[in-house]
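Homework-ish question, so no full write-ups if that breaks the rules, but can someone show me the predicted structure for this set?
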Amino acid sequence: MSVIVFERARIVDPARGIDETGTVIVRDGLIEAAGSSALNQGRPEGAEIVDCTGLTIVPGLVDAHVHVGEPGAEHRETIASASLAAAAGGVTSIVTMPDTDPVIDDVALVEFVLRSARDTALVRVHPAAAITKGLAGHEMTEFALLKGAGAVALTEGRRSVANSLVMRRALTYARDFGAVIAHETQDADLASFGVMNEGLFASWLGLPGIPREAETIMLDRDLSLARLTGGAYHAAKISTAIAVDAVARARNDGADVTAGVSINNLALNEMDVGEYRTFFRVSPPLRAEEDRLAMVEALKSGAVDIIVSSHDPQDVDTKRLPFSEAAPGAIGLETLLAAALRLYHNGDVPLLRLIEALSTAPARRFGLEAGTLAPGAPADLAVVDLEAPWVVREETIRSRSKNTCFEGALMQGRVLQTLVAGRTVFVAE
Amino acid sequence: MTDPTAFPPFPHRHLLGIGALSPQDIELLLDRAEAAVAISRRPDKKMSTLRGRTQINLFYESSTRTQSSFELAGKRLGADVMNMSVASSAVKKGETLMDTAMTLNAMHPDILVIRHSSAGAAALLAQKVGCSVVNAGDGAHEHPTQALLDALTIRRAKGRIARLVVAICGDVLHSRVARSNIILLNALGAQVRVVAPSTLLPAGIEKMGVERFSRMEDGLKGADVVMMLRLQRERMAGAFVPSIREYFRHFGLDAAKLSAAKEDAIVMHPGPMNRGVEIASEIADGPHSLIQEQVEMGVAVRMAVMEALLDPRRTEEGGGQ
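A: Not a homework solution, just the prediction itself:
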């Protein structure tokens, strides 16, 4: 029997609305108690005591949008290397995207991911499966069998389902089995060859732009279909104020709709592209500063439910190219919490709300047993020094790919220790 | 020209775009080019300013005009010029731009001239190689030597650029020539207009320092300079404009439309022209046209640029930006 007692920590548990100083008791991989009165029964005998004065304990982060290179592009990232990065970032559960090679569109492939995760991963890995076979946008995958095998969501990853009828049927059929359809909406025709946010800055750079409407036209369609079908729909990564309003309206109408935002769209804007910096080519594209501010506001108000890292490892073969030829995507598992804490430090979003969006809300939406420090919950948690300053350095990145948007960035807030099921999977040096 | 100290030194290592230049930088290059025009008109055009220097032309898009202009400019200055024809090179075998650049860099060129279909390609190259880089056109971003040769042509015809009304007409959206010209002409105090169907204008054009028009009659009214842009064939048939005949009717430069401009207006085109699409032959070959002069100025401007970049006062310090 192993017992760890974290004492004098600031405990943030959005599921119970707690932000207070107290103790977290971990016994046999589960939370026994967490809060100001956790020591009411006295200190357990033989416990390992950890003094957390000045530190904060949060439920382990749940990152609902992670690309890995396994299977098919292991030189960019394996499940093992992604889990190392996650653990270092305080992320204890990841939802992996199905647009690998081969595509995760079959029970055997879901089982492959889970097996590889069981054998090599430090954190919990939950595969999402494809909505359509081969991500071709036509035939539905076996939603019920996939869910039974362990797929926690259905999504096309980087792609969008263009065919409205396919999307309608997917939402309708998924409802019968309680499966969530998570969708990044981008109208491929309207986005065309676009590589960054459409506007004056892109025009001067001579880069084709992606208008905001490429996101919202398809989102509006999806929201209409969510109303029509009653299916569970999650807008995976929205980036504009109009999209926030559209989601809010659908929710008002009683549709089962949630929305996520990439940390990149909360922390950065189009000006960060600078002189064709390809690491800042991401999807959805970095928008204007007013869009970023709108997303921060939406996060604060709860109009946007979930923050994701949108972790997308790309190597020199796909990034050291002219901007419009480079692949979109940036890694983010290791910097997710620190980048999000900027919003806390500058007073934009309270810590409780921030952790809710990073942990509790995604766990709830995708039905994961995570996102809380409530007694009986798995002891997935992160010990964080909210104030510790550090600088993101390529040499210390654990991901196999180094395409971070935060190289050289000064961060405030650092993960010191990460536990998954009571086992320490990361300790800061 | 023979005396390198006849002009002040040029404070840049690369020429990637007009955007990085001050009005003084631009004037300096134009003054140097003026001197090069005189040299190019002599029977003996061969200089020794760049003797022993190596110039590599790396053209990912075929361009007879620009490539031969750069080649001739380098040869007139005495440089050894090598043309990398991409059609037969490793690029076809999948080598990336950066790997090609590193290979060429290992051959110690002094100047790399690059044309590429992607915006930012020249800047990317400049980060990785040890020599000067000249952008000969990168996607829809910039084509600085074209803007300089246009400015030289205008200055010689009109005596100045400040306060002139310049109408840039046609496919501004996809045009690096338009962007470089908009920046340069604004820097030297011209009043810039763009005239095009709105499908061929970039987002935010109103904030790019131009006045926008969608009718030639309005946009050309009182213009001193009419700059036509090339419309790519693949953009004519329904994608951006419905048809060639409709485009020519409304946006092609003919005598009737030109009559709205000043009587002594000059007409320019960066070439190659689509006669009967953006410009009528009567105009292209008519008295207002300075299209042939632009070609001549092209060689002079490229001589001036390469000489300025390889100015021994800068290169021998191994510095500059």
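Now go work out the reasoning yourself. Hint: Chain A has a mean pLDDT of 97.
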